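ligand=nicotinamide-adenine-dinucleotide
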Amino acid sequence: MTVRNRADWQAFSEQLTIRGQAWINGEYTDAVSGETFDCISPIDGKKIATIASCDEADVNCAVSVARSVFESGVWAGMAPKNRKQILQAFAAKIDEHRGELALLETLDMGKPISESLSDDIPGSANCIRWCAEAIDKVYDEVAPVGQGSLALVTREAIGVVAAIVPWNFPLSMASWKLGPALATGNSVILKPSEKSPLTAIRMAELAEEAGLPKGVLQVLPGFGHTAGKALALHPEVDCLAFTGSTHVAKQLMIYAGESNMKRVWLEAGGKSPNIIFADAPDLDKAASYAAMAIGYNQGEVCTAGSRLLVEESIHDEFIMLLKKHMETWQPGHPLDPETTSGAIVDDIQTRNVLGFIESGKHEGAQLIMGGERVMAETGGYYIEPTIFDGVNNKMTIAQQEIFGPVLSVITFKDEDEAVQIANDTVYGLAAALWTDNLSRAHRVSRRLRAGSVFINNYHGGDMTMPFGGLKQSGNGRDKSLHAFEKYTELKSTWIALD
Ligand code: NAD
């Protein structure tokens, strides 16, 4: 159907058949226990689906399928050029079902439909396609060992990969794992967040329609402490690819140590500084990006520019510009194509964010904009774009990841102080700086302890650039050819020639 406005999207949603079962060995399957949980839309607080609540029994089943599929070589042993074709067809299926997937994503976790449609779904297809296209162009190595021997350095698939992902970009985060893990020949079990399982389940079915052999990709919806933990402890899972909070990331390292020392790749939290120097080339543009850096996806972004560091001499002018741009991130109905900021994922997260706002007030920061829950009459969860000024970097709102539209403004006197404040965090995911001084741009960029640095922009990047964090933001990199390193092991083969 042609979908143009909110009423069209609402009509489309009434026609949708939403599946909430697990996808195991190419079949929709109930949890072994028969347990389910409700999938609630944050748009209006209403139930939209019943979801299978998988636990250890389902994990055992899926891992046994994944292992035997891997050992059979049906996928791992397939020529890269053939895996490429199937994954390209998979990407095409995602594109073909863009409207349906975008709608599922928005209904499930509350982001604006325009974002699901223009960013999340095409971005996911692009990631799968990029990895597919790359896989038959990556060569192994011959080591320079001289005449008497031939020394090969080859990369092999790891085996069974468990991908555990969060709710803020459900399909994108899944694709960042699936693209490289499938392209390199692994069998993958995907556990979506209990808050956003819908697109993951649908995607697995599309992958099989595209020709992916049964059991290569399976999806287990369920909770972290049941399905997630069982995957992380399972002795036949070879690799955990995780995106989520730092707290759970630390837990996964323990589970790996307690079980089989599986490889653990962690994309975790952030508290990213966005530094505005007085010599920024265009203050209005910097203010508009600063608002986007905390407004986009309701601030539920690991790289959100949640700490805004402003040079003292431009503070007043910048705050005025910032407030103007923050107004454009007022929440609206997520199915309205004009909406820029949607619903917070659920009641729990809404209460978390409001709790942080209270702590900011209590610790003495000045609330200069927003701070309230709005649109409560809808039954959904919406929070105004919120700015605290006069924040000290030691305050809770400056140190902890809020994961909502709450910005902390901190002033600094000079470059050294800006770098010191920027790096004074346990996280190291992203950082940004605004200056028209080339030397300063490079100098400060080198001193910032972050996996990504944006200069005179925010959220820049694409599939060709690795993405990941330093410090307690994690390890390893998603995207780019570097992502293949996570899902392969190096083998050295020494062949005597004489
Ligand atoms: P979360 O850590 O609560 O959950 C992430 C996933 O882990 C979910 O699927 C959850 O069910 C599962 N899980 C929870 N407890 C578990 C356990 N004990 N064992 C195994 N699995 C368990 O995170 P969230 O609230 O879903 O997502 C928000 C977090 O994700 C934020 O901290 C954000 O910064 C982070 N994030 C990071 C990136 C990145 O690339 N660095 C990207 C997006 C989100």
